Amino acid sequence: MSVLSGKKILLGITGGIAAYKTAALVRLLIKAGAEIQVIMTPASHQFVTPFTLSTLSKKPVYTKFFNAGDEGGTWNNHVDLALWADFIIIAPATANTLAKMANGICDNLLMAIYLSAKCPVFVAPAMDLDMYVHPSTDRNINLLTSYGNIIIPAEEGELASGLVGKGRMAEPEHILDFIDDYFNTSLPLKGKKILITAGPTYEPIDPVRFIGNHSSGKMGFDIAMEAAKRGAEVVLVSGPTNQKICHPLVKVISILSAKEMYTVCHDYFESVDAVVAAAAVADYRPKHVADQKIKKNSEEFVIEMDKNPDILASLGAIKKKQFLIGFALETQNEVEHAKQKIVKKNLDLIVLNSLNDKGAGFGKPTNKVTFIDKDFNLEPMELKLKEEVAIDIVQKIIDHYA
Ligand code: PMT
Which of 124, 129, 133, 402 is within CB 3.0–4.6 Å of 165 for a Cys-Cys bond? Predict the structure, then answer.
């Protein structure tokens, strides 16, 4: 049974094109067994009709403090409505509404209810790409988070303007999953935060060339998805990849080089409970990066290299509570090398994959791994889909915290 069953939900709809999706959202919430009270801002009437929403929610929809034609002095009491709700969803939340919420501006019924609410408030922003990345929107979202509101991240894709990028309101199904996960305390990684690295790093030589490797990012993305499905909040730091992920609990941070990955990992490390380092990080980077494209003027071309920081080892050196899982990609003396990495990087567990095993390693949909714990116990696994390997890895984190 959904955790939404029997819940009283106040759905606030504001004036953006994504408002058309709220008809589907109301249907899904009703199907999950929730009772819905829809509140619309005047601007939202341009995008979806109150009649549609009152039909689907089986209740009158409110927009104003006073209803038209009501001469009896009754009004839509914002305080009572706020107290009635077990929680509030504001979807879509336009840039304008986010700004009002962040600054306590109370010029419509929905904002009066918001300011009166004592219950959890979920906010699903939706706007065009440039509005979404504007510093003021970013600041307003951060302010709302600091007030304890729960942001349901906007999704990537084609926007109504024709631009492609982040800013779409989360799909109704994803909003339901997000809220379900939020209240579902039975998920084993609920309340845990996990940092995952994925993909290759690109080490620039000049403006058009780089040193990279064959990592597709799939292994790391699969681990991120599995961890989020089990309730963890995930920070996924990824090098260049074609992989896509869409889960409200996953925050993707894209980087290019090992140094950038190092900085992001250290920014988040203190706040996380576990780390899974699936990225194939370049061990060296060109000493000098040319400002202009290098011309082929000589028969030989030598690149001097500097050693990159070992990100995982640097995290291992300062770890306190964190459960640290590393990967080892080997081509010879696999177990010996993996054991050395456990010690050198102060790991709790290493996932060894060898390029000598058919179907293992880079770019493939499968992997064959051996788990080695810090006491050097070996657990060889069969060849599996990377999604299945991800389940096994996430289970190790769950077992650790059980
Ligand atoms: O992305 P896919 O195509 O799905 O392929 C998955 C994978 C083969 C890349 C993945 O399963 C894998 O093995 N990742 C680690 C590859 C690697 O760089 O291994 P390593 O033995 O060189 O490094 C050991 C560990 O230290 C790794 O966890 C690595 O992320 C980390 N490391 C390495 C170097 C460095 N400078 N900083 C690091 O943090």
Answer: 129
Longest CA span, the chain: 92
Portions of the chain given CATH number 3.40.50.1950? 8-186
Cα(187) to centroid(ligand 1), Å: 28
373 is in an annotated binding site: no
Q: Helix H segments across 154-295?
A: 172-183, 218-229, 258-269
Residue 184, pLDDT score: 80
- Give yes or no for residue 348 having a pLDDT over 80: yes
- Give residues with Cβ within 8 angstroms of 269, minimum separation 6: 195, 275, 315, 318, 319, 322
Give the CATH architecture of domain 193-401: 3-Layer(aba) Sandwich (3.40)
The yes-or-no answer on residue 367 being catalytic is: no
Where exactly does CATH 3.40.50.10300 map onto the chain? 193-401
Question: Of 336, 314, 328, nearest to 278 (Cα)?
Answer: 328
Q: What is the mean pLDDT of the chain?
A: 94
CATH architecture of 8-186: 3-Layer(aba) Sandwich (3.40)
Task: From 48, 52, 134, 150, select the one nearest 95 (Cα to Cα).
Answer: 134
Which residue ranges have their beta carbon within 6 Å of ligand 1?
A: 197, 199, 215-219, 258, 277-281, 283, 308, 310-312, 326-329, 341, 353, 361-363, 367, 386
Task: Quote the pTM value.
Answer: 0.73
